[in-house]
Amino acid sequence: MKLFVGIDVSSKDLQVVALDSEDQNKRLINDSFVNDLYGASELKKQILDLAQNKHYDQIIIGMEATSIYSFHPAYFFQNDEDLQKLNVETDVINPKETSRFHKVFEESKTDPLDAYYIALYLSFGHYRVSIARQDNYLALERLTRTRYELVQELTRTKQHFIEALYYRVNKLITVDKDKINTPLFGATMMSIVTDSKTLDEIADMPTEDLISYLQVKGRGRFSDPDTLAKAIKKAVRGSYRLGKVMTDSIDAVLSVHYNMIQSFNESIKDLEKAIDRIVDALPESKILESIPGIGKTYTAGIIAEIGSIDRFDKEEQLAKYAGLTWNQYQSGDHSNEHTPMARTGNRYLRYYLIEAANLARLHDPVFKKYYQKKYDEAVYSPHKRACTLTARKLVRVIFKLLKDDKLYRTPRS
What domain of life does the native source organism fall in (predicted)? Predict the structure, then answer.
């Protein structure tokens, strides 16, 4: 016999309904507890009392993923020493899954009802993934998720920087990249854009002086500084001129975005150092790093979200957890050729898998061949679609390697 404990979590309280497999209509617990250590401990006591009286084979405690509010209750119940002596599983559920389940019954949405349907959802044995137990995984998750958020912010800031730069010197954005073959966000170009020199000063500067300026900023790394200097001067001269008020405004915006970009880059480096210290201690890291190209950072992001591979029975479960699934549309003899990816699942895991797959296809012939095949087949957004499908293949490989506890070996052709 099993006990199912459904918890509807808010910032203030825990609405709880407990059912067992013997009689799902009888609510063994139907109460509200404060969302703090005292409230969780009181609920734990009631669960232990039920377990002592009924001798359950398994106790499943489930709650929806509700931003930061579900973290502490889930962590408490999963790691409590008294509960660990019993066969207790703690699940954090995608709210979309329970919402679809709830709609079948067409009842009003209230917190006690939500808790009841969470418990009922658990009793139906629907696909669930228990939270990672070890602190190392959770600590790594905090770091890798923060890194993800900073990378998103960095990308947005760079887009705003490019937009402002187009107002300031539009030809620098649209010029042929073969002529200015240095990265826009490299130290040299950023110095040119944000330095104290005005664009007119750069345009009027003798080519020899600009070459020297570029060599100093680029630390002598340019193979053809003469061509680069001429291309930059041409781009600056061909750009539209703005009035002083508008110019000062754009320069202020560029300066702010430049400082933000520098700050984000430094913060990401600091996080990656902290990530490296934790991931090196995890046994799964060597397995994932054996896949060519992935490296420590993406290995850490994947491990942090997967946790123990024992949480998953099949690779399809892992793919669904990551949101790397596609909805099939078919009616009669018609089947839609373009099947969009299901926008559900763990977006952090999906991001790290796709980024890792993009690196793996550059370093491993098997992934490269598969990527190219999917690229050639794609009708829309070939690179994006091929990377995503390659990430789905990577899921199969990672699942197999972790389950078998083996390093990756590139198959011989």
Answer: Bacteria
